[in-house]
Each structure stands twice: as structure tokens, then as C-alpha cells.
Amino acid sequence: MADTFELRDIEVWDGNMAASHALRQAQVDVVAAYPITPSTPIVENYANFKANGYIDGEFVMTESEHGAMSCCIGAAAAGGRVATATSSQGFALMVETLYSASGMRIPIVLNVVNRAIGAPLNVNGDHSDMYMGRDSGWIQIDCYNPQNVYDMNLIAFRVSEDHDVRLPAMVHQDGFMTSHTAQGVKTLSDEVAYNFVGEYKPMNDMLDLDHPVTHGVQTEEDWHFEHKARQQHALMTAVIPKIQAAFDDFEKLTGRKYNIVETYNMDDAEVAVVCMGTSVETAEEVSNELRAQGIKAGVVGIRVFRPFPLEQIAAALKDVKAIAALDRSSPHGTVGALFNELSGALFNTDTKAVMTNYIYGLGGRDLTKAHLVEIYNDLKANADAGKPTTPLQQYIGLRGPKLSFF
Amino acid sequence: MEKKGWDGFEIGAMLRSFEGAVSGIATILPEDRPYSASSSFTASVADWRIQKPLFNKDYCIDCQFCWVYCPDLSIISRDKKMVGIDFDHCKGCGICVQVCPTNPKSLLMFPEQIEEEVALAEWPTKNTSKATTEAKEE
Q1: pLDDT at residue B133 tops 60
Q2: Domain range for A81
Q3: Which terminus of chain B has fewer Cβ atoms in its 10 Å neighbourhood, N or C?
Q4: ipTM of this complex
């Protein structure tokens, strides 16, 4: 039996350590992992806990991220609570198996420490890997700081393993900005955290020898469509209510309130920035400063990226006059994904809001408060004019001549 | 097998081998097991075959070579006695015929359409040619 880890009420943890402790407290049966910056410390810390007697589960070192996720899929299909972590190129190598995990409807928690994807090779944070996963059928929950990472990991197990859901979940944090920045993190005792996550309840597990099953079967044109439709139905209808229920229970337990869509200064906002990750907190600070100058600035943070909360987003943005969608991933040939999602959410509503797109922060480039002031000023001009006063897609924080499209 | 709508089957890329719970399945003969409709035991793939092996028990010595070598578990053997061939799953690969050591062979390949009685009537007799025997020993 694993030893209890005595935690202080507030620990100074970076996002990686917060994830490691959450995995430990969830009493994961199998972690299969391959290291990659900046997610390596998650599994490194975890292996340390295991070596020091704090973990009963198995820790498997694999030959690649493809192997790591494949091992996780096997362990989860067998009937274990399973988790791992990765970033960037490793995430890219996992992609094939990510689709297997979601299609097989087995719960796994994957910590993705967001990092740019080469070339050029880059170890710093942007959202390219997160965006690459957005059609993979996984639940994608986004964190803005180490506290979020701890909390969302515990929540992710509960949602992913729910028998009405049975879909794998990613918990995203920004590489280095969250993963390696230590902050005060309010903790739960091992017992309280485990009780929140709950005991793993197997379903269709291969180790149930009285009910033999074959996992990972082949279907062709006669069955594949129905299987994918069933998967989409669960992702679209079951997940958001289950996340909301987990958020509600978590608030009762800890007092920390999370929302499917996070809003800040939005009650009377005229202009809004919509973004993810560490940018949300920076934008919040800037919105306060601009309000002192008379600009009714608000912030919408995406907490659940998949399934994308179309209705909640539309409700959050229904009264604003200008919106900026901030995408931290090169869209390579179109507008940013967030711009597209927001457009889809708002298109058939009564909104007349002007919407523009900003590409920022690629490869770990800082998004400064000055950049956000610039964006909000653009939005104010758009709101006053009632139409775009700038090109639809602009690059922000980029050296050289101003780059924009459309 | 009934083609159900998207909400009419169990979730996941998963199929059950049996209808309901089973126990001690290894001690139950295949024909007595409650295989599910989605089990490959239930499905016939006989139309994959263009030639079929036929069995002549007059020459069989129950050595079980065919049972051991069949890649599709399609040789039916009970109490170490050759019983016959599972024509729902045999693909007609001919390995059983290749490994059959009797003279003449107790298993031979025939066109799919031939009647068993006709095939048995055409069965070759013992080959006494020395050359053939020697070649076999090499």
C-alpha cells in the first residue's frame, strides 16, 4: 500500500509538479510514458514518487510516444486507470493512437504541456500541439496556471471515466509559462483528492474473464459511420453536463469555481478578447487597466476546447460589439481555429459584433500587456465603426513589416 | 447479423465473444459454446475458398498433423480422432494435405463444387513407386 504524502495546504508547485501530484493522488494503475520537453518533469516526478513508495501502480518506460499511448490504450482496455504526459513532436507521434483511444471509448488522462511544433525546432510554448489534437475525439480542457492544472487533472479522471462518457481527456497547460513557473497551489489531502476522483469503475474490461471482449475491431462502410456517430453523440451531449457537474462538486469541496467558458469583466463589456492558456490572465489584467481609461474591455477564456461549447460561447459574447479571437498556432492557410469556432458559434445568432483574428506568441514569443492594449484599441475602433477597421487576420508581436491577411 | 442504428449497439470498437456471461469456457466444446452473432465462429467465410480439402477416413492414422498445422482451426478432432473439416472457416489453403503423411493421403484438394461421394470414388490408391518413396524421404 502506497504511503500517504503529507502536503501543506498551499504548496509551491509549477504546473508539472501539480500534474504529478494529481496523478499520484488519483492512484493511477498504469503510467506509460516517453519523456519530452517541457512535459518530462510530470512523469519524472511521478517515477520519483513511485521509487519512494508513494505509488502502487505500474510505471512503464516505452520506446516512443506512439508506444506510450499504445501501452496506455492496452492498459485502459484491460480495465485500469491510466494517464501519461507529452508535448509537441511527441504529441504529433501519438496522434494515430489518440484516434484509437477515443474511437475505442476508453478513458485515459493525457497531460499535454503545450509546445510549438517544428520546423524550426522549438521547445517553447504555443498551442500548435493542442490544435493538432482538436479532431482526435478527445476531451480537451485548458489550464491557465498551476492551480488549474492540479484541479483539472482530478476533474478529468472523473469525467473521462464516467460510464456515460468513456472518452479520453487531455489537460492542457502552456509550456514553461505554466509548466515551469512555480506558484502557490492549494492542495487537497491524498484521501480527499482520491475520494473526489472516486474508485475506478471498469467497463467492458478485457480482464473480466467471464465476459470476453475483443477491443479495437475493424469496421468498414457497413458499420464505421454508426460507430463514429455514436462517439460524436457522446462527445457533444454527455461531456459538457458531466464537466459542469464535476465543476459544481469541486466548488463545493474546495470553493474554487470553474466554468465551461470563463468570463472576466464581461457583464457590460463592449469589446472582448477570447483566448486560452496563460494569455487569459494577462488579458484580464489589461482589461482592468483599460476600464480605468473608459474602455469596457472583457475577457473570455476557453476552459473546454473540445467539445467546443458553442452555446456557452455564444451566450458569453452575445452583447459585445467587437471580438478578437487570439490564436497561438499558425493556421497555415486559413484563419485561426478559434476565429473559425467563434464564427460558427455566433453566425446564426442576432449578434452584429465585428470579429477579427490575431496570431500571436508562436514558439514561446511573449504576449505582452502592450500587445493586448493594441488589440483592445483595434477592437474599440471596430466597435465604434461597426465594421472592421483592420485586416481580418493580423500578426501581433512579430518583427518586420506589419503582416496581415484578408 | 442485424445492422443496427448508431444508438443500437454497445459503445467502443468492441465485440463480445459470447452471449452473456461464461465460465470455464475452456472445458466446453466449441459447438456447445454460446458464441455471439459477432464472433467469427458464427460467421461463415466459406466463399473465400475455391478448392476444398476432403477427408478419407479409410487411410487416416489420426496422427493429428493436419489439426496441428491448420492455421484456421478448421480441422475438427475429438478425443485425438480426426472427425472432419469445418467448412465454414476453412480457406482451402491445402496445408493439411501437404502435411498428411499417409499413402495415399487421407486429405486431398478437390474443386469446391465436387460431391464428396464422387471425390471418394476417385481417391487414388497406394503409390508403390520407389522413386516417389525415396524422394519423400529426402
Answers
A1: no
A2: 10-200+220-254
A3: C
A4: 0.87
